[in-house]
């Protein structure tokens, strides 16, 4: 029995599914989850001493690679002064100033402890500011696990094959409307049906929780136009894309300005951090200066702020990091596309910058329904093959691959070489049948 197996056998008795977040249980791909001991750069190492090239990066936070010295030093230095005070600190002011500098649409920002909390609070602020109740989200987008967002959600909800979650009263989701990603007519239909009652449209500006689904040309601009015309707030959930697709995230890349943005992951550099921010008049509705209540014991935690500040300052001051991330993404995902073509494999590669995924379906994937055509069992075979070859991918089809600045061109070559052997062994045989 491996140490991971021994730990998992203990964990399943005391933790639901043996994990503290469902996707980690390997339920969608089979086999035993690996318990990770340590990580450095682009590699993680499990408790049995097995090292892997890591394409999860803690689901996005590790854009500079694991254990970056500047982040590590900042955490140690901050911890020397105490871990948490439940009172205001200088680093929270510095974090707010830095986020507002890097993301022009943000005039005011509130720190919270997770992406879920950021989205839950942003939706409440939108409802409080507009006095309206309805929210439009998109099938396949995942905005954390707050009740109102668990409607046709992506990520683990989609992986589990259920439309939502048990335990969510219908009253909590009656005001959540679902539209089709990349389909503006589905949004128009809901706007007409609920004229004057919609507080916000929330969207992942790049879908990354149904696998990776970039926005079609004009989709985000179309949402912006409709929101402006109808007095609806546009919320960009940039928990994944924020500070990843560029220093100003997806809104900078696509030049579309949301009213509220939610963040997570990269702004904490691996520590539990989320944030929501936007136009001053909206954020001034949030307590204590406004009537929208939101609070948090560890919000703006000094050690977490130190980690996030260290990482964001490097991203802000080193634009060539994004050039490298995009170049690595190009090398990896174009390489995967070449393999699909070479083997005439029934797969599709979607990607943007340092985000991408291999869908086990031959048809193009532009929304939740397309993504659902994927052969998730085949993805499981691929995942296990790559894991055995020392490459740690997302343990579910409806997730993303995350590149970091610590990955090298040799890492990508190694990954493509392993994928080539997988294709030769599986699709190559398909060709013979
Ligand atoms: P957290 O509450 O997990 O910090 O963030 C929720 C969230 C909100 N918005 C978007 C766009 C997200 O991708 C997420 C969380 N992402 C998943 C990965 N698909 C987290 C991994 C997990 O659930 O273990």
What does this structure look like?
The protein has 15 helices and 14 strands. Helix 2 packs antiparallel against helix 11 and helix 3 runs parallel beside helix 11. The chain has 433 residues and is an alpha/beta fold. The chain has a seven-stranded mixed β-sheet with strand order 4-10-9-8-7-5-6, with helices on both faces. Strands 1-2-3-13 form a four-stranded mixed β-sheet. Bound molecules: ligand KE4. Ligand KE4 binds next to helix 4 and helix 5.
SSE layout and pairing:
Layout: H1 3-14, E1 36-40, E2 43-46, E3 51-54, H2 69-80, H3 90-102, E4 108-112, H4 115-130, E5 134-138, H5 155-159, H6 170-173, E6 176-179, H7 184-193, E7 198-203, H8 219-230, E8 233-237, H9 249-254, E9 260-263, E10 274-278, H10 280-283, H11 302-317, H12 320-343, E11 348-352, E12 355-359, H13 368-372, H14 376-388, E13 391-392, E14 401-402, H15 409-432
Parallel strand pairs: 3-13, 5-6, 5-7, 7-8, 8-9
Antiparallel strand pairs: 1-2, 2-3, 4-10, 9-10, 11-12, 12-14
Helix pairs in contact: 2-11, 3-11, 7-8, 12-15
Bound molecules: ligand KE4.
Ligand KE4 binds next to helix 4 and helix 5.
Secondary structural class: alpha/beta
Number of helices: 15
* Largest β-sheet summary: 7 strands, mixed
Q: Ends: how far apart?
A: 38 Å
The helix/strand series, from N terminus to C terminus, equals HEEEHHEHEHHEHEHEHEEHHHEEHHEEH
Helix content class: 40-55%
Strand content: 5-15%
User: What gross morphology would you assign?
Assistant: globular
Give the integer mean of the pLDDT values: 97
Instruction: List each distinct ligand once.
Output: ligand KE4
What Rg is obtained from the alpha carbons, in whole angstroms? 21 Å
Identify low-pLDDT runs: none
């Amino acid at each position: 029995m491996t140490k991971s197996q021994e730990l998992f056998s203990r964990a399943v008795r005391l933790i639901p599914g043996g994990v503290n977040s469902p996707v980690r249980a390997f339920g969608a791909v089979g086999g035993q989850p690996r318990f990770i001991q340590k990580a450095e750069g682009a590699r993680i190492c499990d408790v049995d001493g097995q090292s892997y090239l890591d394409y999860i990066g803690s689901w996005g936070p590790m854009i500079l690679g694991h254990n970056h010295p500047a982040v590590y030093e900042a955490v140690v230095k901050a911890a020397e002064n105490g871990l948490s005070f439940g009172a205001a600190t200088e680093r929270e002011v510095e974090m707010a100033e830095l986020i507002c500098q890097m993301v022009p649409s943000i005039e005011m920002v509130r720190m919270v402890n997770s992406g879920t909390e950021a989205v839950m609070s942003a939706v409440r602020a939108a409802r409080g500011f507009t006095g309206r109740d309805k929210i439009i989200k998109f099938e396949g987008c995942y905005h954390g696990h707050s009740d109102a967002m668990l409607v046709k959600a992506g990520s683990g909800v989609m992986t589990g094959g259920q439309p939502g979650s048990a335990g969510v009263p219908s009253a909590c989701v009656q005001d959540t409307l679902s539209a089709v990603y990349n389909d503006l007519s589905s949004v128009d239909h809901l706007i007409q049906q609920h004229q004057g009652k919609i507080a916000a449209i929330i969207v992942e500006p790049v879908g990354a929780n149904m696998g990776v689904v970039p926005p079609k040309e004009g989709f985000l601009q179309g949402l912006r136009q409709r929101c402006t015309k109808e007095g609806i707030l546009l919320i960009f959930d940039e928990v994944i894309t924020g500070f990843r697709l560029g220093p100003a995230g997806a809104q900078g890349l696509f030049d579309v300005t949301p009213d509220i943005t939610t963040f997570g992951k990269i702004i904490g550099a691996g520590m539990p951090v989320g944030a929501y921010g936007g136009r001053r008049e909206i954020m001034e509705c949030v307590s204590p200066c406004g009537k929208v209540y939101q609070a948090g014991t560890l919000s703006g935690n000094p050690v977490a702020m130190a980690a996030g500040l260290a990482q964001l300052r490097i991203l802000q001051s080193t634009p060539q990091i994004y050039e490298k991330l995009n170049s690595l993404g190009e090398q990896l995902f174009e390489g995967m596309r070449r393999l699909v073509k070479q083997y005439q494999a029934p797969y599709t590669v979607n990607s943007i910058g340092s985000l991408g995924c291999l869908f086990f379906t031959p048809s193009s994937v532009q929304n939740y329904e397309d993504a659902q055509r994927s052969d998730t069992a085949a993805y499981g075979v691929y995942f296990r093959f790559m894991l055995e070859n020392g490459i740690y991918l997302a343990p579910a089809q409806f997730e993303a691959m995350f590149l970091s600045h610590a990955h090298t061109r040799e890492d990508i070559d190694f990954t493509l070489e392993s994928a080539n052997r997988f294709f030769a062994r599986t699709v190559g045989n398909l060709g013979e049948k």
